[in-house]
Design a protein that fits this description.
This protein is of the alpha+beta class. It contains seven helices and eleven strands. The two termini are about 30 Å apart.
């Protein structure tokens, strides 16, 4: 595989990365009518939905959608808003959203991070618990059927707009550790917007503070092992630590991994201790 810093992902990659993401993704019009959503969003909502009306609680208020739309009218975007999705088995989440366009062309891009307390991978001093909320989350996403409004080639314009404006950092990494593609939010997160070619096309090692942790992640991606709700530090172009929360899985067919699906959030709790995978402080 080779990286091309000048091109966005192919439509096939976008369908896979968005459709099979380990975080919920929904695109609606300005009223909340759903244009597409992925299977992780189906898990959050406890089923499919054609409209977000009556599907979101904010501060215990059933009409959460109206409150969120009003906020977007004022601010155009927000991050880490606590919501509870309504439906059979609906779940709590933290939502990022951004609005584009106006009137009939208005679209809202929603990204929902499940509100879970545990993470994957766990420290090597622990035995992986198949009943942990992190393990149950990714298992539910993996087994969830694609919804009727799943990403498809017919919705390419929506998929490409989502990638460009998404309120979350997205990057695709090859099996050799090369950053194949990164969306504008990802490039901005590590402060390479003025010099994106210094980041995209290079090795992902450049942005990880903990190099041993990255080596562990690279081996997991090669095995298609998920990284869920994991707190780490990236490093900006100027060398400043950037606390993040990582949700990442890999695209694999026939036992061969072609690229990751990495979704990275600004950590709303940057003071929290960073996660490790070794009892000896390694990776360090």
């Amino acid at each position: 595989m080779t990286a091309d810093q000048h091109n966005a992902p192919s439509i096939e990659q976008l369908i896979d990365v968005i459709g099979n993401s380990s975080v919920g993704i929904t695109v609606t019009d300005g009223s909340g009518t759903v244009l597409l959503h992925n299977k992780a969003q189906s898990v959050l909502m406890g089923g499919e939905a054609g409209h977000l009306r009556d599907r979101i609680l904010v501060d215990g208020t059933k009409d959460g959608l109206t409150a969120l739309l009003a906020r977007l009218d004022k601010e155009d975007r927000f991050e880490h808003v606590a919501v509870t999705y309504q439906g059979t088995g609906g779940r709590a989440a933290r939502v990022n959203a951004v609005a584009t366009g106006s009137g009939d062309t208005r679209r809202i891009h929603w990204v929902s991070r499940p509100d879970i307390g545990e993470r994957l991978p766990i420290a090597d001093t622990s035995t992986e618990d198949p009943t942990s909320d992190a393990k149950q989350w990714i298992s539910a996403v993996d087994t969830q059927p694609h919804p009727g409004l799943a990403p498809t080639a017919e919705r390419e314009d929506i998929l490409r707009e989502f990638y460009e404006v998404a309120p979350v950092a997205i990057h695709l990494i090859g099996v050799d550790g090369q950053v194949m593609q990164a969306n504008p939010a990802d490039v901005a997160l590590v402060e390479y917007s003025a010099q994106p070619s210094e980041y995209v096309g290079g090795h992902i090692r450049r942005i990880y503070e903990n190099q041993g942790l990255l080596d562990d992640f690279l081996s997991r991606w090669d095995e298609d092992s998920p990284i869920i709700n994991f707190r780490a530090n990236f490093v900006t172009r100027e060398g400043t630590p950037k606390p993040v929360v990582i949700f990442s899985t890999a695209q694999a067919e026939g036992g061969s991994v072609s690229n990751t699906r990495c979704f990275v959030f600004n950590d709303p709790e940057p003071q929290r201790e960073r996660d490790v995978v070794s009892s000896f402080g390694w990776p360090a």
